[in-house]
Amino acid sequence: MSEEIFEHESEQTMSREAAAKRLREIAGQLEKHNEISLLAHGRDVTVRVADQVTFEYEVEVESADKNEIEISISW
Fold first, then answer.
1. Contact between residue 71 and residue 57 where contact means Cβ atoms under 8 Å apart
2. How many C-alpha atoms does 33 have within 13 Å on its Cβ side?
3. How far separated are the first and last CA of the chain, in Å rounded?
4. 4-16 pLDDT tens trace
5. How far apart are CA 72 and CA 35, in angstroms?
6. What would the pLDDT profile of 29-53 be if each residue is shown by its tens digit?
7. What are φ and ψ of residue 15, in 5° steps?
8. Residue 68 three-state SS
């Protein structure tokens, strides 16, 4: 069983437009490079991404005020 070397989870409240901008930034890195760079715990972290990935998304509709879209990319 392998152990994780690094894990970072972040939750932030922002506008819908800001969330869309962040998703576009991530998508741009995926499209143009084979890695994603981000700032986590005060340090730059680069994650290399394989050419073939598994893309998964989940939609939860709970009420008019509480819903969730979860996106996962793994390789």
1. yes
2. 11
3. 17
4. 677 878 889 999 9
5. 15
6. 999 988 999 887 788 889 999 999 9
7. -70, 160
8. strand
